[in-house]
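Hey, I was hoping to borrow your eyes for a little while. No rush at all, and the record is pasted right below.
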Amino acid sequence: MKPVSRFTVPALATGRDNGTASAGVEISALAVVFYYMFNYLQRSRGWPVVVGFLLLLALYSLITALELKVLQSLLNQLFLFTTVAILIIFQPELRRLLAVLGNLPLFATDQDSPLDVDAVVQATEQLSRKRVGSIMAIERSVDIHQETHSGVPVDCVLTSEMLDSIFVPQSPLHDGGVIIRGDRIQYASCIFPLTRRIDVNHTLGTRHRAAIGLSEETDAIVVIVSEETGDISYCHDGALHSNVTLNQLKDFLNEVLKSEVEPAETRSRIQRAKDSLRAMAEIIEKKLRPKEKSN
């Protein structure tokens, strides 16, 4: 009996230590996930719903403590539909999050030809100089046309001259935005969804509100030229960057799209995994870092 006791006790202690370590890892992981999730939702249109749901949980806890059986039964029936309600209410946020994950280098697949950044920058310069209002949506992993269900099919090569001619005030396609996919202009005269945020500057016009709304619904990059001032802005991930220079716009496009320009097959799986982890770390850091105000 003594040998059994001598070897059993350390085994139990080791198992208890492993269980404590696993619990610590799980709690830390859940804390990071919930912190990131609340920070993400706090900047979305669904944040009032989250607050309401938390208040409902607090009310349920109070009813349970007071042992109010009828109200508790009614709330139990209500919570049966919570999962479906969350999927419906937070569908845009979930779609954007999945689009970001699917766009990581690890999951990269064969894509369209890379974007001609110079053509976009040159067209933006010409439109800004002539103060021609325009909105150009650069599609990435989410199909913009499926989200908007609007626009006239164009499907032509992306050039600065073509973009300039589309937004000329006399053009029948100038009213609305264009959708750029790879090295081609796919649609023109598109109507993009306006943002519903209440914290947006009231001086912003319809183009800028549409750019914010589209970048909230998809992972697109939207370039805007103001008709009144000729100022250049771009919108990404729901954040509007106003009064940027052409060099700033070009650097941003090159930085964001650089991983999409390099073909996936030229990189090893290990390198793609490293790039994915690096991209994920940048995404988390960007989400957790307080947003800076636009100029």
User: Anything to note?
Assistant: The chain is about 55% helix and 10% strand.
